[in-house]
Amino acid sequence: MPEFKAPLRDIRFVRDELLDYPAHYRGLPGGEEATPDVVDAILEEGARFCEEVIAPLNRVGDLEGCSWSESGVKTPSGFKEAYRRYVEGGWPSLAHAVEHGGQGLPESLGVAVTEMVGEANWAWGMYPGLAQGAMNTLFAHGTEEQKAAYLTRLVSGEWTGTMCLTEPHCGTDLGLLRTRAEPQADGSYRVSGTKIFISAGEHDLAENIVHIVLARLPDAPPGTKGISLFIVPKFLPAAGGGLGARNRVSCGSIEHKMGIHGNATCVMNFDGATGFLIGPPHKGLNCMFTFMNTARLGTALQGLAHAEVAFQGAIRYARERLQMRALSGPKAPELPADPIIVHPDVRRMLLTIKAFAEGNRALLYFSAKQVDIARYSQDATERAAADLLLGFLTPIAKAFMTETGFEAASLGLQVYGGHGYIREWGMEQNLRDSRIAMLYEGTTGVQALDLLGRKVLMTQGESLKAFTKIVHKFCKAHAEDEGLKAFVEPLARLNQEWGELTLKIGMQAMQDREEVGAAAVDYLMYSGYACLAYFWADMARVAQERLAAGSGEAAFYRAKLQTARFYFARILPRTRGHVEAMLAGAGPLMELAAEDFDLGY
């Protein structure tokens, strides 16, 4: 396995130099505690914990997996001890409210720690990661009594949480779910049904697991308008704040998966379990979107994590592996062959991985900044603007970052050649672990429909304009900068085309609604490449300024500029294919009748 090193230099570049997080925190209510010294100390200690404690367990988790018995689920060797140290270090409470036992630091700072955890060991990181969504849901929609009973224990890390949506017959279309909740005389509910694919649904890391469950009340209208949301704990809270009776919820089995073996993906059976309503009856899906949006950004981070791991492994191997001579003549004549990093095709793969890892990091931390503003700003207009922008970026981040994260993981394996296919190098695990990210929390196709249909067309393009205005202002401000001309001019053309394409698809959709579904994935990928073009142009601006100022880290900033040039020259042209596909319309997809697909088989 490649040794993991937390990418602190690039995290700091994006947060401090590109997005000016220090100024962001100074202007954020409660952000005054997140001084540069405090942030640096947290990042340094988080990096040490990830590198020394949980990264060594990554391969252990893959080889051992989780084991199920009727008494529960046992996690891989070392996972429980690592979680104990994680809780003792106060990491679960980092970005949560002081009144619930948290440290009161901005949510975006927690994202930085979560990135390093995910890169070190994604399977382990899912156990505390799922609890974040449960905490956010309770914070936003729970009663004061529910917060007192559950939130404080979740914030401390003593308890963990899950989200329970999917059923055997029902995945994305939650209107089909059958889990029932019967009201009881004491105000609780008896929840009955089966949920599948529940990450971290059962384990031995924490003493209690708080399930956030979608179910139907007896008088529920059909479809998504009849869904309510419930807290269903593994153990009911005791009056004094400890553990009470064991609830009637159990893990029926765990899935045998392609990857992420160290995290238990469970079938959860609710057999008349005691549950408690969160939010209004029949409005559960609205409340659950708090959890789902947290999970979508968390899954976007997974795409970044696998790209970073792929780059770290591939760059080290490419510098050491000897193979052939460079076409232009030997580059290491003292050796029997040249390191493969001299070959153009290996450079293509390494730069593609680097461009996606670093570009997606900028997209993620920009989105995290909007989360801070939408949650904490005291200016209602500012909160609404951040929320609109975040709604637009979330499906792009989730789908584009996981698609390109998988591509990066695949290229990381490819750099190794045949060795990449062998377990001991860790690249095949990284590829297997990355594949699920395009599926859960809404597939790429579902995210694309959300982006184009709900977020863009249903707002008459207002959410798109929230981002394209930022790009337009950047291009206008730097139109006369000769050093940025190679980035600004194509970015400005792309930004204009983005709006024109949206209008064309909208006009086509007025004639045939299938046009939205036909264009959606290409539109999302185009949008992702356009977003990264803006961030790479802005990163080139910062790098150019630092080099002009005579920075002592010239090599770092030169690499930023060169990677930006690579992105615009070799990656951004992919948008041309997506444009052609979008404008081809629904006809080529829908002409073949469903019954004719299998003729001759």
UniProtKB/TrEMBL annotation:
Enzyme class name? oxidoreductase
Q: What is its EC number?
A: 1.3.99.41
What is catalyzed by this enzyme?
Answer: 3-(methylsulfanyl)propanoyl-CoA + oxidized [electron-transfer flavoprotein] + H(+) = 3-(methylsulfanyl)acryloyl-CoA + reduced [electron-transfer flavoprotein]
Q: Which residues form the Acyl-CoA dehydrogenase/oxidase C-terminal domain?
A: 283-450
Domain Acyl-CoA dehydrogenase/oxidase N-terminal: residue ranges:
41-158
Q: Which residues form the Acetyl-CoA dehydrogenase-like C-terminal domain?
A: 467-592
Domain named Acyl-CoA oxidase/dehydrogenase middle: residues: 163-271
Span of the signal peptide: none
InterPro entries referenced in this protein's UniProt entry, alphabetically: Acyl-CoA_dh-like_C_dom (IPR025878), Acyl-CoA_Oxase/DH_mid-dom (IPR006091), Acyl-CoA_Oxase/DH_mid-dom_sf (IPR046373), AcylCo_DH-like_C (IPR036250), AcylCo_DH/oxidase_C (IPR009075), AcylCoA_DH/ox_N (IPR013786), AcylCoA_DH/ox_N_sf (IPR037069), AcylCoA_DH/oxidase_NM_dom_sf (IPR009100)
* Similarity comment: Belongs to the acyl-CoA dehydrogenase family.
Under which name does UniProt file this protein? 3-methylmercaptopropionyl-CoA dehydrogenase
Species for this entry: Azotobacter beijerinckii
